[in-house]
């Protein structure tokens, strides 16, 4: 009898402990709530200028921030913000049409995800048409395709495949939004098959990813694209999808490793496994988002990962300065087989590579 009572009491205490851990992601001090932080960053984005490539196209980092601001606006039911974000896009149909990225590169094509997200909000067919053109052209081989691009297409993958880990956000985000808009499984299947191939080719035994196969460094934001791409894809995949188990395996393996490398202060470093490197905000925010998503979806143990996500969020917030710019953001970084190169990378305040994942985290922390 005493044993049964003990086990019953233990079960109650365990349940209460689990509830307490889930609350780790539901209650934050004033000034650090996702509602406050998200509002600061989203309205700051609305007021900002376009971020362009040298060739005068909208930069993918702006698209990422725009998507994040929309996600936050939807979560908070901020109709004013949604309208402002929609109005910011409207000139692309007229006087700013020249800023639209061409449909010939993985970083350019992900622009379509923004148009498709706006379609889901407004049901304006102009967004749907534009977004699907970007999504479909990732799998439509151009006439001037290079031999390597043809080889990828012949295998059923996107001709824009590069085996850079960035692609597992850039490709999957637009295909994912196309699936949400159309319900056509071809978009989901494309993204999933591509993700499985990248996992098989690039994930290391410890669950992390080198910046490139010939550059053996675990660069934070590089790994961050994988950390975000996997849960975003898993969220929409039916449980019986043939590729779901493989992607979940890769995701859980990465999350376990990331938790081990989280610094005592809650951050992750510019090179994840190098304790003498500086804390970098964009990669930290991406990993935090992946933890939040996993806890909220029930994929990650809340007892273990909710406190880690909370610690990271509270560590991230002080990096936002008085102008609502995220600081300590590594600038755009190409691969280089040189450890010092990563250590010496310049850091920008307000770089949209950092603003975007902060917005993703704010939106993910609000509600389900």
From TrEMBL:
GO terms for molecular function: hydrolase activity. It comes from Pararcticibacter amylolyticus. InterPro entries: 6-hairpin_glycosidase_sf (IPR008928), 6hp_glycosidase-like_sf (IPR012341), Glyco_hydro_88 (IPR010905), PolySaccharide_Degr_Enz (IPR052043). The keyword Amino-acid biosynthesis does not apply. PANTHER family: UNSATURATED RHAMNOGALACTURONAN HYDROLASE (EUROFUNG). Keywords: Hydrolase, Signal. GO terms for biological process: carbohydrate metabolic process. This is Glycosyl hydrolase. The lineage of its organism: Bacteria, Pseudomonadati, Bacteroidota, Sphingobacteriia, Sphingobacteriales. Substrate binds at residue 166. Residues 1-20 form the signal peptide. SUPFAM superfamilies: Six-hairpin glycosidases (SSF48208). Pfam families: Glyco_hydro_88. It comes from the Bacteria.
């Amino acid at each position: 009898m005493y044993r049964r009572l003990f086990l019953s009491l233990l079960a109650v205490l365990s349940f209460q402990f689990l509830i307490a851990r889930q609350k780790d992601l539901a209650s934050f001090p004033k000034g650090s709530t996702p509602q406050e932080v998200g509002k600061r960053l989203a309205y700051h984005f609305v007021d900002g200028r376009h971020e362009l490539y040298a060739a005068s196209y909208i930069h993918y980092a702006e698209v990422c921030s725009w998507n994040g601001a929309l996600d936050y606006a939807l979560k908070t039911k901020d109709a004013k913000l949604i309208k402002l974000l929609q109005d910011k896009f409207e000139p692309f149909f007229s006087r700013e049409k020249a800023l639209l990225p061409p449909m010939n590169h993985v970083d350019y094509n992900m622009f379509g995800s923004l148009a498709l997200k706006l379609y889901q909000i407004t049901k304006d067919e102009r967004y749907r048409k534009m977004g699907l053109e970007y999504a479909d052209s990732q799998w439509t081989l151009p006439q001037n395709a290079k031999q390597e691009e043809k080889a990828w297409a012949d295998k059923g993958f996107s001709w824009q495949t590069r085996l850079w880990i960035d692609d597992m956000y850039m490709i999957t985000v637009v295909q994912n939004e196309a699936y949400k808009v159309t319900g056509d499984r071809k978009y989901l299947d494309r993204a999933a098959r591509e993700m499985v191939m990248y996992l098989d080719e690039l994930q290391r035994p410890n669950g992390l990813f080198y910046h490139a196969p010939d550059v053996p460094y675990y660069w934070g934001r590089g790994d961050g694209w994988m950390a975000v791409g996997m849960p975003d894809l898993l969220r929409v995949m039916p449980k019986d999808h043939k590729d779901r188990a493989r992607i979940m395996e890769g995701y859980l393996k990465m999350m376990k490793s990331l938790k081990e490398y989280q610094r005592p202060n809650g951050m992750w470093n510019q090179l994840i496994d190098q304790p003498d490197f500086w804390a970098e905000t964009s990669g930290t925010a991406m990993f935090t988002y992946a933890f939040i998503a996993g806890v909220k979806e029930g994929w990650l143990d809340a007892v273990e990962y909710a406190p880690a996500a909370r610690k990271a969020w509270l560590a991230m917030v002080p990096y936002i300065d008085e102008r609502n710019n995220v600081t300590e953001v590594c600038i755009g970084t190409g691969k280089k087989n040189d450890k010092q190169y990563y250590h010496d990378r310049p850091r920008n305040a307000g770089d949209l590579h950092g603003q975007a994942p902060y917005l993703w985290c704010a939106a993910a922390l609000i509600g389900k």
